[in-house]
């Protein structure tokens, strides 16, 4: 059973940066399919960035050029670097695991970390 614990959220001004971390246990971040999605209460989930087992990454149009997904297999941790933050990026961010691009994030998610962007 996968267990995911996110951290790194916070409050920043527009244009600021944050790095989100997701410590995984139960599965290696080197295997299967991992990523980040964001979701506000009563809103649809939006996939932000994903990474497959060989390190290929994909991004939502809203994230391209600003966000970067990465992993540290020694620490079994997934990261999401958020740069150039906008007020529209304000919401909860979740780390999640799946087995493929088409089924992610069926294997579970963490409790989330809040990102707030305001002036």
Structure description:
The strands form two sheets. Strands 2-10-9-4-5-6 form a six-stranded mixed beta sheet, with no helix packed on it. A four-stranded antiparallel beta sheet has the order 1-3-8-7, with no helix packed on it. The chain is 0% helix and 48% strand. The chain contains no helices and ten strands. By secondary structure, it is mostly beta strands.
Give a short summary of the structure:
The protein is mostly beta strands. The protein contains no helices and ten strands.
Reported for the largest beta sheet, the result is: 6 strands, mixed
- Widest β-sheet, arrangement of strands: 2-10-9-4-5-6
Order of helical and strand elements = EEEEEEEEEE
How does the helix and strand content classify structurally? mainly beta
How many strands? Answer: 10
Determine the fraction of residues in helical runs and give it as a percent range: under 10%
Gyration radius, to the nearest Å?
13 Å
Q: What is the tally of helical segments?
A: 0
Strand content: over 45%
**End-to-end distance:** 40 Å
**Mean pLDDT over the residues:** 95
Unreliable residue runs: none
User: Tell me, what's the shape?
Assistant: globular
